[in-house]
Amino acid sequence: MKQYCKFESALDILIGKWKPVILLQLIANGAMRFSELQKAIPGINKKMLTQQLRELEYNDIVHREVYHQIPPKVEYSISEYGQSLGAVLQVMNDWGTAHIDHMNMLYGAEDRSEQE
Amino acid sequence: MKQYCKFESALDILIGKWKPVILLQLIANGAMRFSELQKAIPGINKKMLTQQLRELEYNDIVHREVYHQIPPKVEYSISEYGQSLGAVLQVMNDWGTAHIDHMNMLYGAEDRSEQE
DNA sequence: CGTTAAGGTTACTATTTATTAACCAGGTTT
DNA sequence: AAACCTGGTTAATAAATAGTAACCTTAACG
């Protein structure tokens, strides 16, 4: 009966206000430098970008490559191991897409951005 | 390139300190009443239990069945539609299990509960 | 008539997360 | 020499999330 009991460890590494969009960027664009990510993600600030990248790096999802130059250059990319997350995201995406439809069916398709 | 762009909508319904454990309970035990959930989940309080259940109910993952009796009886269960989440949890669980191993490999298996 | 029962709600506090803005390094351009 | 570049860090603040404790309902029990 403890079938799904470890799904939280997958959940944990995706949780964080900016992690999904960071991953999406890196998946779509391959290696990106810090400033490119910052430009590509409106509303994010350096601190959050650093912090979320560090957490993804700690989990070996993202690889950080430092070029010792002045001014510095640092590139982030999905790590070899991180690629394995693709299948998970795919399944979540498929279900998520269907879920949006399901919710529209239940509550109507008016673009309500709030719940309550 | 917008392959996984909706995976956040799946993520959203799983986010919340108690949602995973509530789902796990309901998956394992079928219908459970409010007080049974409260007993089964150490540390949770009425407010949080109600709130998380309401969010799951709003997303049609959990079904709420009220028995009009005194004292009241309310049973919660995974809804018909909510069953479809099972496949997602399964994939996340499998990856999560492997990820725990991967992290142990990277950082050693000493039971470090903190990062940093 | 006060207490108990189940399943909540409410107002208030505490803890966690996220945001803002200022600062740093060290070489290059003006 | 002042200002700019990138990729950060730090301290302080705001916003969001979670936790505590007291209260509510309606009927039955002692």
UniProtKB/TrEMBL annotation, chains A, B:
The keyword Flavoprotein does not apply. InterPro entries: HTH_HxlR, WH-like_DNA-bd_sf, WH_DNA-bd_sf. Signal peptide: none annotated. Pfam families: HxlR. Keywords: DNA-binding, Transcription, Transcription regulation. Residues 5-104 form the HTH hxlR-type domain. This is Transcriptional regulator. It comes from Paenibacillus glycanilyticus. The lineage of its organism: Bacteria, Bacillati, Bacillota, Bacilli, Bacillales.
